[in-house]
Specification:
The chain has about 290 residues and is mainly alpha-helical. It has four domains: about 90 residues, Helix Hairpins (Orthogonal Bundle); about 40 residues; about 70 residues, MazG-like (Helix Hairpins, Orthogonal Bundle), CATH 1.10.287.1080; about 55 residues.
C-alpha cells in the first residue's frame, strides 16, 4: 500500500497531538524548525550534484516534511493550513504564467499550434518580473511600510551570504545597475583586492575584513556575469579541495608520516600529484568520449 499526502498530514497531526504525540515534535516551533529546513534543502542539492538519484526521493521527502511542519503550526494557530499553501502557490503560478494559462485557470491552455519556442523567452521573463514587482508593491502596501517598494524586497536575509549577494546584484542588474561585461567586474575585483592589501599594509584588521566582504561581493558578480551560481561554484571547489587533501593524507599515511610532522613542501608535492592524477583522468575520459573513426 502506497501512502498519500493525506497520510502524511495525518502523521504530522498525530506527532503534534498533546496526548499521543512525540515529545520532540511537540517541543518544536516556527524558529526551531528553520535550521532543519535549510539543512534539508542543502541535502537535496547535494544529492542532485552527486547524481545520487536513488537518495533523492528520501531527501525531497525530508524537505516536504518541513512544509508539512509549517502547515501544522499554521493550522494550530488558525492562521493557514496545507490546503491554503497549495491554493496560494497554484494561484500565484497561474498568475505568473499567462503565456501558458491565458485565462488564469488550469483549464485554459496556450492555443494549439503555438509551441514553447514560439513564446519569446525575453517577453516571458519581462512579464514575470513585472508580475513579481506588482506583488512586492501589494505586499508593501499591505504591511503599511513607509518605504517605497524596492526591487530588493523579499530577498530573504536567511539565504547563505553568497546566494543572497548573487540575488541582490541580479535584482539591481535588471534595472540597469550593472557592468556592461565581465571585464568591468574583473577590474572591480582587482580594485577590491588592492584595497584589501592597502588595509593589511596599514595594519587595519577591521577595515581589511570589510574589504574582503567587498571582494567576495565582486567575485559573486563575476560568477553571475558568467551565468554561474556562486554557491555551486564554491561547493564544487570545496569538493575538489576535500578530494585532493584526502589524497595528501593517504600518501602521508602510506609513508607513515603524521600530518603534524610533514612539511608544507611535502604536502604541496602530494597536492600537485593529486592535481596531475585528476588531469590524467579527465584527459582519459575526454578521449573515451571522442567518436571512433572506425
Amino acid at each position: 500500500m502506497r501512502h498519500g499526502m493525506d497520510d502524511l498530514l495525518t502523521l504530522m497531526q498525530v506527532l503534534r497531538d498533546a496526548e499521543q504525540g512525540c515529545p520532540w515534535d511537540l517541543q518544536q516551533d516556527w524558529d526551531s524548525i528553520v535550521p532543519h529546513t535549510l539543512e534539508e534543502a542543502y541535502e537535496v542539492a547535494d544529492a542532485i550534484e552527486r547524481r545520487s538519484f536513488d537518495e533523492l526521493p528520501g531527501e525531497l521527502g525530508d524537505l516536504l516534511f518541513q512544509v508539512v511542519y509549517y502547515a501544522q503550526f499554521g493550522a494550530e494557530e488558525r492562521r493557514f493550513d496545507f490546503a491554503d499553501i497549495v491554493d496560494t502557490l497554484t494561484a500565484k503560478m497561474l498568475r505568473r504564467h499567462p503565456h501558458v494559462f491565458p485565462d488564469g485557470t488550469l483549464a485554459s491552455r496556450r492555443p494549439s499550434g503555438v509551441s514553447a519556442d514560439d513564446v519569446q523567452t525575453q517577453q516571458v521573463n519581462s512579464r514575470w518580473e513585472s508580475l513579481k514587482a506588482a506583488e512586492r508593491e501589494e505586499r508593501a502596501q499591505a504591511e503599511r511600510t513607509n518605504d517605497i517598494p524596492s526591487v530588493l524586497d523579499d530577498v530573504p536575509r536567511t539565504l547563505p551570504a553568497l546566494s543572497r549577494a548573487a540575488k541582490l546584484s541580479k535584482r539591481a542588474a535588471r534595472v540597469g545597475f550593472d557592468w556592461p561585461d565581465a571585464k568591468g567586474v574583473i577590474a572591480k575585483i582587482r580594485e577590491e583586492l588592492a584595497e584589501v592589501e592597502e588595509a593589511l599594509a596599514a595594519g587595519d584588521q577591521s577595515h581589511a575584513q570589510e574589504e574582503v566582504g567587498d571582494l567576495l561581493f565582486a567575485v559573486t558578480n563575476l560568477a553571475r556575469s558568467l551565468k554561474a551560481d556562486p554557491e555551486q561554484c564554491l561547493r564544487a571547489t570545496n569538493t575538489k579541495f576535500e578530494r585532493r587533501f584526502r589524497y595528501v593524507e593517504r600518501e602521508l599515511s602510506a609513508a607513515q608520516r603524521p600530518l603534524s610532522d610533514a612539511s608544507l613542501d611535502e604536502m604541496e608535492t602530494h597536492w600537485q600529484a593529486a592535481k596531475a592524477q585528476e588531469a590524467q583522468s579527465q584527459e582519459k575520459q575526454s578521449q573515451e568520449k571522442q567518436p571512433s573513426h572506425f
